[in-house]
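Private note to self, pasted from the team thread so I don't lose it. Backbone tokens:
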């Protein structure tokens, strides 16, 4: 195939700059999408220098453009009988290596740019898992907080009434993300089945009695800790006795804490959007069970932890503060597990000043570009999200396999496979970073490792 190099573009650096300028011009007011693209393109300089074929096939312009973007109205009635209207989205980013796959996020901050960054990241992450999954993401600006179960159900039914036209077990398989857990997946699945009259693996994160996989709820947190363990092994260290900071208190945080306890580490923080809990005695299994009940059953706020456990300190969110106090607690390891850009340059400086040895990202893009550079410059062990949190989608891939086979694997079998996948992802990132001349830089390792498989598939499949 011979495709002309764009006029005026010669070196890989020029090419990357021209792509970045065009991404910003074509996608205005989407700073998170620009950030995610900028980080990947920066790593790809090293690839283009060795592989001009990607440049001549204009692979970068193609990979930053979603294959399809769906945006739709979601009307529903609240409990008072008032009409509510939200916006729904699905970004079908890339299907070169498999059906679109990625979560749904329900949060008032959701907009097109945030979902495009998440879908873009998902393409590379899914490629790293070794499983055949393309990348997608979706969601709504609906806020489940404070809504009754019936309101959540009516919203989910309205959302799925439109989404069902676009998804399917061989086309696009959504899962959960912020604000979308077992309850929401249940309502979404029920409506899909009712409208389509078919019982298929169209969603992952399903209940165990109706097609879900053991270990899927635990997978992102467990996987992130397995990844951290692999990073530490390269320095002949373990998690045993390490003081750990965890942010958030949702799905990823809860199971990160559970696996840290299995490894003998001492988690000392959790948070939500209203503030931070620091428990100097450590969050043990009994306290974790209490947090799970608070968040998953009673749907309460994390500040209640300090009423229950008197030695714990609650620090309310203060928008005037130039840093998050959670990242200013002295510790060995940090597991950001809440949301994007929760670690700013100031937070990264505090972590580094306090001697942090490892950052493993459970959340998606939790570090700003500046914070990422600071971690790389400080040469700490830094596991970027698209590698460190890939265990969730990997186990969704295992759920899809079980659904296709109409079989359920045991807890041990799924956990073993998850563990092996996380070891393989770490090894791929570690070796790729070395091969491209930046040993230890797992950001480059993950971006390049994820890119190559997708880019080669795109070349093989022609200009589509
Ligand atoms: P949950 O909804 O279960 O929990 C999210 C947690 O983060 C809550 O404690 C929430 O607090 C807090 N949070 C969310 N948004 C903000 C915000 N803007 N400011 C402060 N705190 C916030 O979501 P998950 O645990 O599933 O997801 C957490 C992160 O992990 C996200 O970045 C997600 O994309 C990523 N991820 C999740 C995967 C999964 O399998 N679930 C897979 C891979 C990545 P509050 O309740 O107050 O909103």
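Design output:
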């Amino acid at each position: 195939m011979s495709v002309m190099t764009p006029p005026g573009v010669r070196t890989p650096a020029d090419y990357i700059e021209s792509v970045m300028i065009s991404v910003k011009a074509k996608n205005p007011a989407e700073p998170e999408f620009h950030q995610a693209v900028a980080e990947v393109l920066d790593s790809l300089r090293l690839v283009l220098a060795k592989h001009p074929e990607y440049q001549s096939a204009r692979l970068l312009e193609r990979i930053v453009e979603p294959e399809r973007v769906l945006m739709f109205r979601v009307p529903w009635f609240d409990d008072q009988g008032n009409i509510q209207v939200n916006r729904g989205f699905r970004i079908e980013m890339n299907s070169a290596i498999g059906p679109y796959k990625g979560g749904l996020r329900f949060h008032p901050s959701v907009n097109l740019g945030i979902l495009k960054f998440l879908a873009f990241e998902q393409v590379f992450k899914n490629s790293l898992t070794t499983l055949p999954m393309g990348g997608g993401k979706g969601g709504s600006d609906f806020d489940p907080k404070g809504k009754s179960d019936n309101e959540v159900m009516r919203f989910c039914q309205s959302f799925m009434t439109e989404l069902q036209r676009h998804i399917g077990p061989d086309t696009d398989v959504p899962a959960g993300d912020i604000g979308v857990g077992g309850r929401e997946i249940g309502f979404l699945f029920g409506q899909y089945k009712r409208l389509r009259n078919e019982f298929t693996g169209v969603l992952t994160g399903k209940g165990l009695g109706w097609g879900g996989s053991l270990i899927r709820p635990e997978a992102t947190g467990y996987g992130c800790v397995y990844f951290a363990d692999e990073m530490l092994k390269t320095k002949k260290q373990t998690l045993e006795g390490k003081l750990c900071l965890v942010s958030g208190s949702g799905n990823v945080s809860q199971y990160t804490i559970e696996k840290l306890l299995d490894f003998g580490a001492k988690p000392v923080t959790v948070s939500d959007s209203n503030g931070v809990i620091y428990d100097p005695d450590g969050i043990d299994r009994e306290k974790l069970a209490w947090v799970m009940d608070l968040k998953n059953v009673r749907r309460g706020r994390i500040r209640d932890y300090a009423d229950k456990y008197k030695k714990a300190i609650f620090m309310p969110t203060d928008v005037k503060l130039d840093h998050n106090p959670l990242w200013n607690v002295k510790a060995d390891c940090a597991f950001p597990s809440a949301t994007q850009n929760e670690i700013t340059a100031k937070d990264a400086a505090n972590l580094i000043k306090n001697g942090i040895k490892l950052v493993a990202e459970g959340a998606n893009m939790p570090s700003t570009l500046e914070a990422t550079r600071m971690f790389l410059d400080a040469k700490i062990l830094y596991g970027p999200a698209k590698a460190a949190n890939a265990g969730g989608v990997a186990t969704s891939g295992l759920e899809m396999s079980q659904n296709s086979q109409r079989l359920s694997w045991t807890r041990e079998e799924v956990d073993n496979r998850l563990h092996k996948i996380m070891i393989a992802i770490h090894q791929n990132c570690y070796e790729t970073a070395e091969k491209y001349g930046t040993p230890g830089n797992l950001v480059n390792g993950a971006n390049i490792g994820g890119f190559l498989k997708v880019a080669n598939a795109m070349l093989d499949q022609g200009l589509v």
